[in-house]
């Protein structure tokens, strides 16, 4: 089995080791949280003098450990293994959301509940422990929950493999099958094609055939994500609605939409009457499970947000493609989704930009009138005092296409950097107005590409 490097996240864990705070590793299920903690980080500890019996592991998503989903049982199990006050213990609790809320058995006729938070808070009082938990639901690991750790929690959010991580692993895997007699040339465009189709869920990399990869991604939805959402939120009769909603959003990534539009689509296409408030609730559940994310629209000149419509992006493009049985592989929207994920992965705040301006045009009677026009900038990217405006363009191979992409950027009159990312593998260059052009693979593989 090849080791997939997650150095960015591993280094964050190493930096936070023994800092007196609980390390909370979040992310969509099967994105590599457990591998990061139980393989990469554990091996780091073992290489640096920590013995096996100092590492206490509890994967709560395994049926053998079902009794420890009770916070009292979990607490007792861990404390029994902390046997030497002179040694430091490293506690790994995987998929903490499986730890159930139970009633306090010591107080009669009380509604007081005991949760995993109580277990972790109690363990944090032990001076010779360092605690790490993973979770796949942002609602359970929200700011409110982190607050209950009394500002003693550090979140490390793990995403599926970035294209840079995927490319490194892709080369290793294909190098292993090289023959010394007829070496295999590893083509980066082949890797890009696979990434655009099957995404960056780590296990996909070790599967051999298109059929195996496709089935694995489809099964993740049916057997893991949708099942988790239904069970954890007590949704009894709406599995079909959840499935359809996922398909609707999958088919419109990179397009503006809102719950009312989706409500109308349910009625017109499926003859299903479902309220926009219910649709909002279900979309929030997908976001809480880290399946997808939403980006708000931001008026660049007016410096204000629009409440609606939004754009939705999938955390992993392979999962999105699997929802649609790999029927809609539109490079434009797929590339936009991948760039969005990369920007989030790099720690930026990302919005959809709107540039508004007025122009005069003639009506049907030939009279001139003022018309307000809205142009879109794919991404307004902020980090501290830095800002970038980014367009994702499949190509700009003729003047009309190029003009369409630069029109909104040229109407922004501030001095922040403007970038157009194209599919072609090009040498980065600037036009006469200072707009940078860069190929998508260069942009994804080089974190400094935005500042070249």
Briefly say what this structure is.
With 452 residues, the protein is α/β, with parallel strands linked by helices. The chain is 39% helix and 23% strand.
Account of the protein in words:
With 452 residues, the protein is α/β, with parallel strands linked by helices. 39% of the residues lie in helices and 23% in strands. Helix 3 packs parallel to helix 4 and helix 6 packs across helix 7. The longest helix is centred in the middle third of the chain and has 23 residues. The chain is globular, with a radius of gyration of 25 Å.
Keywords:
alpha/beta, 16 strands, 5-stranded parallel beta sheet, 452 residues, 15 helices, Rossmann fold, 9-stranded mixed beta sheet
CATH class of the domain at 7-157, please?
Alpha Beta
The overall pLDDT, averaged over residues, is 92
CATH topology of the domain at 7-157: Rossmann fold
CATH architecture annotation name of the domain at 7-157: 3-Layer(aba) Sandwich
Query: Main sheet?
Result: 9 strands, mixed
Low-confidence stretches: none
Q: Strands of the biggest beta sheet: in what spatial order?
A: 8-10-9-11-12-13-14-16-15
Give the N-to-C terminal Cα separation: 37 Å
- The name of the CATH superfamily of the domain at 7-157 reads P-loop containing nucleotide triphosphate hydrolases
